[in-house]
Amino acid sequence: MNIQIRQGTARDLPAVHGLVGELARFERAASSFTATIEEYEEDFREGFFEVIVAEDMATRTVVGMALYNYVYSTWKGRMLYLEDFVVTPDYRRFGIGQRLWDVLKERGRERGCKLMKWQVLDWNEGAIRFYKAQEAEIETEWYNGKLVL
What we know:
- It contains four helices and five strands, in the order βααβββαβα.
- The chain has helices spanning 13-26, 37-45, 96-110, 125-133; strands at 3-7, 50-56, 61-73, 77-87, 115-117.
- It is globular and about 45 Å long.
- This is GNAT family N-acetyltransferase.
- It holds the Pfam family Acetyltransf_1.
């Protein structure tokens, strides 16, 4: 299996959008996934987010991705926020997630980030095991807030 991990480009956005849709269905939140491919394209162009992709070179298919942006922590300084992290089911257990994770951490370090944060559903045991294997702390004492604008 020849998988290339690379910085995503605008050409990858349809595949990224599709993976996010798959993730939304997995998370039982498909109706909440309303961002269009056109919004992805505009927001990517404007630098609102970046993405690292895993591409199967034999099929030229994006089989995994880590979509992220940079934010600021008043306690730590520069921070990388991981919005979505997914590897398609047929490509799991081959180390692709680990390779994406390692590149993501390196991107954060290159930008001077002191912290990386993300969310994980409490029932997503596979993801929680992965994060704990990375020596990540899974916080349970904070509630998440959101407001649709």
